[in-house]
Amino acid sequence: MAILIDPPRAEAHGRRWSHLVTDTDLEELHAFARGCGIPARGFEGDHYDVPEERYDAVVAAGAEPVPARELLRRLVASGLRMQKRRGDKGVARVTGVRLAEGVVVDVDLIASPREADAARVFAALVLVQDAAGDHAVVHSVWRDQWGAPGGGREPGETVRENAVREVQEETGLVLDRDALRPVGYERFSAVEGPGPWHEGRDLLQLFEVHLTATRPPLSTTHDDTSDRRWVTPAELEDLCGTTFWWPLVERVLSPPAW
Fold it and tell me: Is 94 helix (H, G, I), strand (E, B) or coil?
């Protein structure tokens, strides 16, 4: 296995950055990054961003310095490169996610301030936050899991219409679709069992919205959720912090910073 780093030439936030990758195994990359004191939130789906002032220390720790073109070639050849649009930020690749009814999927979690390609979106979720900073969550019957309200897209719906309808059905809250802010998406690829996703229609859009009221009442008109409640940010992490999608929500709620 090789840990690779390119020269600090990428410019962002008034600094220059290197990219730290592996050509074999992401878990080894994570372990190496931890050993170098690189924060987990510096991970971008297939690489870590490393500021220029840390470059020499990372090389001294064992990273192999290579030109940027060589780093990209080896990353692509490894199959670990995460495909995404320019400006999108890879958060994590989660493999072997076991859902209900024997369904197993691999999921890429990607943060983005732009809406995903609508033709590829099969479902939408909304992070609903009230005026006090608390979050509306629902308990999914199918997944037996707490999470943000949302669900599958119906024929003829826009993605925003999908999001607004699902939130109203699961919580009783009526949202202004223009108030929804895109914050990321999940890309699914099936491993075992059927699901509402397939090649070409494989994205779940994540929005967030901020309400002007504090903890308005929640209700439901559907039986696909068994409970709903308002929770504090700490309670949200307690309920959802072990889910496969949590790294994306954590990135949205607490953007990375060096």
Answer: strand
pLDDT tens readout for residues 168-217: 999 999 999 999 999 999 999 877 877 788 778 999 999 999 999 999 99
* CA–CA distance, 30 with 44 (Å, rounded to integer): 11
Dihedral pair phi/psi, residue 237, rounded to 5°: -65, -40
Going from the C-alpha of 44 to that of each of 87, 94, 132, 142, 217, the distances in angstroms are: 11, 13, 30, 30, 38
Paired residues of 15 in beta bridges: 12
Query: Rounded to 5 degrees, what are φ and ψ at 179?
Result: -85, -10
Tokens of 205: 């859009």
Domain ranges of the chain: 3-78, 89-253
C-alpha distances in Å from residue 189, one per residue of 14, 151, 198: 37, 17, 7
Q: What is the torsional sign of CA 69, 71, 73, 76?
A: negative
Q: What is the pLDDT of residues 39-74, one digit of tens each?
A: 988 898 899 999 999 999 999 999 999 999 999 999
| Third-level CATH fold of 89-253 | Nucleoside Triphosphate Pyrophosphohydrolase (3.90.79)
SS3 content of the chain, % helix, strand, coil (to 5): 30, 35, 40
